[in-house]
Amino acid sequence: MDLGPWTLDSPPDCRILFAMDEAGLRELVCEIGRRMYSKDMVAANEGNLSIRVGDRLLATPTGMCKGYLKPDDLVWTDLEGKQTGGRLKVSSEILMHSVVYLHRPDVQAVCHGHPVYATAHAVAGIPLTAALMPEVVVTLGCVPVAPYATPSTQQLADSLVDLVPRHDAILLANHGAITLGSDLEAAFFRMEVLEHYAKIAILTKVLGEQTLLSREEVERLFDLRSKYGISGADSRDSSCAVTAEDSQPVELSRSDLESLIETAVQEVARLSEGK
Ligand SMILES: [Zn+2]
Fold first, then answer.
1. Domain of 267: which CATH number?
2. In what order do the strands lie in the sheet with 176-181?
3. Domain range spanning residue 40?
4. 113 Cα to the center of ligand 1, angstroms
5. Ligand 1 centroid vs 151 CA: distance in angstroms?
6. How far is Cα of residue 82 from the mean position of the Cα atoms in its chain?
7. Which SS3 state, helix, strand or coil, does residue 90 take?
8. What's the CA-to-centroid distance between 102 and ligand 1, angstroms?
9. Considering the entire predicted model, what is its pTM?
10. In 3-state terms, what secondary structure has residue 106?
11. Which of 124, 130, 158, 257 sits most deeply, having the most CB atoms within 10 A of its CB?
12. Could you tell me which of 59, 161, 46 has the C-alpha nearest to residue 113?
């Protein structure tokens, strides 16, 4: 069977190398499902995974625990998410995967789950944009929150359209997270780094101190993203990152503060007169 173009980026040591034929890809999806379930990134039947194989998607079925998938449980769809093969029914969240593949030709795999700390940020509506650690800036860039839409609907897929070209990891408001990769392990590693980062972000808030990286350092790290071809072409804008300079307290003299308040009051008065 011809599986179309397929490349596995230079593998870190923790990768398991699967044969890149259909049987190997099916094993890989089951393995990543086991890792997602064992690492609390999904509960019960939650989450879904897919791989682009030419003009088709190999995807997880609905209603199955990702920790116990078997290779022949997986299903085939076309790029729009319409099922073309498999004895089980495809995940109802396949539309979300489909929108990623349609807008990002560089992406070959998508991982969706509800990891606890990342989802806590998604529920709180807090994007993960603080430049806390260099590895995270290089691997994830900025992680925005997509507006809420009902899971499994076209509206949820549509809510991602503007963000997918610029981001490799996205929080879904009141729902979970989605990560993209040049292969399924790369997408899973992004989910793993995202959850790790979200946990550290929450813990540093609890400790009451977050020391952020400087703007200059963040720009250097974003350059590395470009150099290593880590992200899609549109995701190299570093302006979304919150850096040390952004969190610096501003010092104002009393007279400066009074003058600022006076200007604001006059502006509000001017605007209300103009109504
Ligand atoms: Zn979900």
1. 3.40.225.10
2. 83-85, 75-78, 56-59, 48-53, 109-113, 176-181, 169-172, 145-146
3. 1-275
4. 6
5. 6
6. 23
7. strand
8. 20
9. 0.84
10. coil
11. 130
12. 46
